[in-house]
Amino acid sequence: MADLFISYSQPDAEHAFELVTRLETEGFACWIAPRDIAPAADWAEAIIDAISAARMMILVFSPSSNQSAQVRREVERAVHKQLQILPFRIEDVLPSKSLEYFLSAQHWMDAFPPPREPHYARLCAYLRAHLAAAAAPKAAGDVSGTYTAIAATTRLFQAADLRRMELLLAGYIGPLAKHLVKRAALQAASLDDLVARLAAEIEAESDRRHFAALCRSGADGAMHKIE
């Protein structure tokens, strides 16, 4: 079973295979077409089977993949299988309307500006922590493995604090809070930045202020930065 399914559009093949080489050097098992499709195999069936077997999809995201019908089908299948998708943007572009529905709740990583090596290193660090956390058995009451991975990658927040912020935010906006906290935690530069990003998702100003105050203090302790 491959750890990672690599989705890309044909014009980005050079970038995609460069990424696979870097990931496999770090010990990640990757599946990428057409390399991993047997000569006599049905192309569509092989892709569906590979998506079903993978632990995560890495989407090499660019203007070309943004318009690719094949990429859209792969993303749709991954969402159907509840497979996490990580867009790895090689250019500064946002999802088209056809992909936005599937990717709007996902966080992403950037592979620009050059050189790409620091971006590859950051991606590998995230994947190593995330896949290890996802594979570890979780006892009742454990914090989400995703938050553990984010905390290990960013070294800015504790997993328990992120979970607490999710529960607080859910009181104002509902289940979408989980996705927003994950995305904001990967983008925020500090605790104040994270709180501001999440508070902005709340409609009423009084509720935003109340949420921010709860995030910074509470009966079960204040938020902590990991040095």
Describe the structure.
It is a single chain. The protein is of the alpha/beta class and 227 residues long. The chain has eleven helices and five strands. α1 (13-25) links the parallel β1 and β2. α7 crosses α8 (159-173) and α8 (159-173) runs antiparallel to α11 (205-216). The protein is elongated. Mean pLDDT is 84; it is low at 137-143 and 218-227.
In short:
The chain has eleven helices and five strands. It is of the alpha/beta class. Helix 6 (117-135) packs antiparallel against helix 7 and helix 8 runs antiparallel to helix 11 (205-216).
Question: Which keywords apply here?
Answer:
227 residues; alpha/beta; Rossmann fold; 5-stranded parallel beta sheet; 11 helices; 5 strands; 8% strand; elongated
Query: By helix and strand content, what is the structural category?
Result: alpha/beta
Round the Cα radius of gyration to an integer and report it: 19 Å
The multimeric state of the shown protein is single chain
What would the average pLDDT be, to the nearest integer? 84
CA(first)-CA(last) distance: 36 Å
Return the domain count.
2
CATH architecture of the largest domain: 3-Layer(aba) Sandwich
Could you name the CATH topology of the largest domain? Rossmann fold
Q: Which bin fits the share of residues in helices?
A: 40-55%
The count of helical stretches stands at 11
CATH class of the largest domain: Alpha Beta
